[in-house]
Amino acid sequence: MSATAPTGPRAADAPADGGAPQEAERAAEFEALVAAGESVEPRDWMPDGYRRMLIRQIAQHAHSEIIGMQPEGGWLTRAPSLHRKSVLIAKVQDEAGHGLYLYSAAETLGVDRADLLDALHRGQQRYAATFNHPALTWADTGAIAWLTDGAAVTNQAPLCRTSYGPYARAMRRICQEEAFHVRLGFDMLLALCEGTPEQRAMAQDAVDRWWLPAVALMFGPPDTETAGTREPAAALGAAVSRRAIAWGIKHHTNDELRQRFVDHVVPQAEQLGLTLPDPGIRWNDERGHYDFGPIDWEVYRGSLEEDSHTARRRIAHRVAAHRDGAWVREAAAAYAERPTAPDAAPDRTTAGEGKPTG
Amino acid sequence: MRDPATTARPAAPGARGTAPGDALARHVRRLGDDALILGQRLCETVTRAPTIEEDLALSNIALDLIGHARVLLTRSGQLDGSGRSEDDLAFRRTEREFENVLLVELERGDFAVTIARQLVFSHYAVLHYTALADAADPELAAFGTRAARESAYHRHHADRWTERLGRGTAESHRRMQAAVDRVWPYTAELFEEDELSRTLVATGAVPSVAALHDDWAAAVTAVLDRAGLTVPALGPQPRGGRDGLHTEDFAPLLAELQSVHRQYPGGSW
């Protein structure tokens, strides 16, 4: 909310003797301010549901950045040129940075990064299921950057205007960097497509495998009637999306964003000379959009399984890094508490993940 | 342990002629190999660091090191007139043709080993690159200026962690001391000069690394003192990297580094 509105929902420390009627009044004022496009700041009053929805979404987003480092990080040591190696290191580094911005944004809602990481490690909080797909070849790093990051940009661009200020500000920085990743992914695939037949085949194979994860998993389940499904899941998805849209957390349905992504990517695939693995893709003059085939939601649900080989591997990798680093975090915390330590002041570099015993 | 004074050393297959340009090219290639292989080891730590901040810091340092390798290998390929690119040199040479110091190829170990290796290397790198800024070759000189500045950040990072771990907990102290003990013998090779480098030093083409040793030892000792760590006694000093004679840790590292490039002959990336 604007800083010029000192009363109303901002006055979180006002006496709470008004009881339920005051709560309802606050909620109404909150919704009016969100509807007016104002930004909600950490000390503002906010409905519990809004806070919970944001924590869930921001944490899931942060976890996705951190887990998303793995499929590409695994190829850092094998990048086939020093230029591509540098680009990939920079990209994985950006993802770590995005994770940090997002955990910080979540912390403004009264949660602790260490607790969020614990929840991730215990499987209590999710990350984008897309990353439960294995990165099998070098070309996968290009396909991930072009398609998965491309989908992420489509999803995230509207989040730069999301109602919660710290999240919106984090997203503005993230979106700029993500857009750059997409261009680099495209460029990397272009090099493969202009290379030997074997390189081109590697690129096509990667795009074949990463198309569905991007188009299905990055946007979530259908949440509109137009998605051509009458499943109860779609109705539930639609209800959640309506709530998120009303609170200004989301601005578009999953299906709107999915269509936007398809419209964006099809011409790029033509430029690359790669075939997207969906025979239903064709331009629809009447709609002014590309049609695409129905998504096999069984694949979607299958990918949400937490016991798939790659999903177990992703979490085990995270847990091992965290466990192996426990003695380091303990040491940093102990050192920071020493009276003579030059970094006795709070130091995000060392104490970031708190709970040294974790 | 071979004694360099008494053991005949087979010339590495990478050794080319002895024209001045070739000598400088080989010297520069050795430095490029150091940066490349250390950068490769750091790439292994990314996604495995104790905190997200450290994933960020270590990948940042790896990025700088790969950047250093690119400049140095490119320059080497120009100086020897072979026209070999940075990628030709990184991806198409064999084990015996790499002439990095053994220190940078040692298996990554725990976080303390990463820090100990960064400590001894970054202190060396700042001194060496600062001196290189006065090199006759203008490209090398420009590289020296830039690389010294970046290495100063790496040194700061290593200094701070050495102190935190040395003075953190009993476990971190034990691990950090073990890590310093582990890498220490391999530091001698950083300052070793052979006929090739002595010739280049004599002509003023490159700075003497041997002359940097005492400053390096004083600076690293000061950090170890602040960290409450003991400077290891000088024992056997493994060497051979500069002649392409590596540890068994090296071949698997190189196989991984070159795997995709070699799987796609004639590929463009």
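Chain B touches chain A through 52 residues (CB under 8 Å).
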